[in-house]
Predict the structure.
Amino acid sequence: MMRTGEEVHPCVGCGFCCIRQTCTFGCQRHPEALGKVCPELGWNGNRYVCRLLTTPGPMVFFYKEELQVGGGCRSYLNPWRKEIRPRTKEDLINL
Ligand code: SF4
Ligand code: SF4
């Protein structure tokens, strides 16, 4: 769902939000990865993508709705947005 009354900053796939905190679906599907980067997060050569959202199937619409895909980035002042690249372990320190 699109938020209203404020400027929308599109997701550029920097990965910050998913790397910083795995969402409910990532936690539910991967309890073994507690405290690690979500296993559903992948680098496609240009940006990070969530595999739940790119794998065809009946659940993809539900995930898109629940994760508010298309609703814009809530971390739009984050410097990661200006440097889209695969992140290293060093990048994750003090995140
Ligand atoms: S922090 Fe913003 S730009 Fe980066 S992956 Fe999350 S929504 Fe997309
Ligand atoms: S399941 Fe997808 S949206 Fe959720 S944290 Fe993992 S990569 Fe991000």
In short: The pocket of iron/sulfur cluster (ligand 1) is lined by residues 11-17, 48, 73, 75, 78, 81 (CB under 6 Å). The beta strands are 41-43, 48-50. The chain has a mean pLDDT of 93.
